[in-house]
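User: I'll paste a sequence; please echo it back and then give the predicted structure.

Assistant: Echoing your sequence first, then the prediction.
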Amino acid sequence: MRTAIIGCGYVGAKLGAQLSKVGHEVYGIRRSSGADSTLKSFGIIPVHADITKPETLSRTPANFDWVVHCASSSGGTALDYRRTYVEGTRNLLAWLDATPPQKLVYTNSTSVYGQTDGSTVDETSQTEPASATGRILLQTEALLLEAARFRRTPTVLLRVAGIYGPERGYWLQQFLKGEPKIEGKGERLLNMVHRDDVAGGILAALRHGAPGQIYNLVDEEPVSQLVLFQWLADRLGRSLPASEASAVSSKRGMTHKRVSNQKLERELGYRFLYPTFREGFEAEIKRLGK
């Protein structure tokens, strides 16, 4: 298969390496040339283009069997998000119109779920994010679902939880630096997924995902801050972090929910390499020699 990975970075490079290893022709599309040598070492062909600049896409042939859209914003403002996700996705779809792929997989975020009550959410749950960036991500989903219905672009959406893995992961990094704070009583639920399982989930969606469908890509166990930090403290022989007095609900855009992955497991048949944070964090702790 001839595959394009848009935004071939932390996740995309891992996916591309897996695809190349089994004989796929993989093109890694990035804004800059800084990672060219790394991509080449994974068997990925570097391509320099920016979905926010359609003239750069027009210079790239679009005849791909599979396309993975995992581009990320270069900044965190609503304007940055709109430029990359909404306008960039429009440009990407226009580029693909002449020669639509057999499958397009888009990696979005579970931040589109705005629940703050600790409830379990699945793909049918209400999506009302409090943040402007979350609403922009939903608008991007609408563009892609419209493409799946009315254009010739079979699109599958993945809502991905907080990604961690080698050299990445906010909570583990904060703990290792001695900088974390427990929010209130530490009851807020965290939804996470290992980088390698994101790559595996994308591959499962490319192979088995139904066009127009949404799947949550999150591990088996949403975990409270307190349980996570207690595990880390026990594992590394350290004290629990201090608590901060501010209530979780006072923080703008903060959510508290339990995201279900049952649809992804049931319909795509995916089995997680790191079913919970314990297996994933243990692998990273060992890699770091802690």
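The chain is about 40% helix and 20% strand. Confidence is low (pLDDT under 50) at residues 247-252.
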